[in-house]
Amino acid sequence: MDKVDEVAEIAVLGGVGFNSYRDCESHPVKTPYGGVTAYITSIRGRNVAIIPRHAEEIHIPPHRVNYRANIWAVHSLGVKRVISTNSVGSMRGHTVGSFVVLDDFIDFTCSRPSTFYDDKTVHVDVVEPYCPEIKEALKSGLVKQGFPYTEGIYACTEGPRFETRAEIRMMSQFADVVGMTGVPEVVLAKELGLCYASLAIVTNQACGMTTQKLTADEVTEVVGKAQDSIYEILSHAIGEIPESQNCMCRFAKEGACL
Questions:
Q1: What percent of the chain is modeled with pLDDT above 90?
Q2: For the structural domain made of 10-251, what CATH number should be given?
Q3: Going by fewer Cβ within 10 Å, which terminus of the chain is more open, N or C?
């Protein structure tokens, strides 16, 4: 693909309630899948592109987020490393407001474009979907800020509705947290050879884990209160990410094409 000048080396894809880009310089990016607005800033001496996943004015629901445009945009900006933030429901009784560094995923989405390759078969390797180097940087940031964390498996559902009790009982047998935005984002990043990892914040207990009704308001409230903490964790992690890629993420497409 043709790339523009290398505007940034790291990207942050922000989820619900993430607003750390408000005072950054906007940078429109054209992609084959539509336009994207990135917000460019400097964190720990490194150029960072921030993309709010759900856009700004009208909240784009998770099943309609233009994942291909977002990932193509960060790649065209010269980005090699991507940090995702995701709001999740816990199926393991995590404390609301606690953090999970994602280790693997299970995909329950059904209608989203999930590949850049519609005209040929590309079996991209996802044996290690989340970059080990970025994961270590995130864990270092969590420890530095004094936040306990766990690692876990992420189940991604289609949305926009919340899951049923039966669905949560089924998914809880093999996943730890559930959300609606982590896939196909992670797969698309792999297809372009990007390093990608996710910092998930627990915003609620999943359906049936408590007697309380799930609401969207509690999701935005929890993330809103954690804005400063999330920024400090990400800021530390960005400073810790090695400048050169020593992981295998960039080779995920090798030998994948039929």
A1: 76
A2: 3.40.50.1580
A3: C
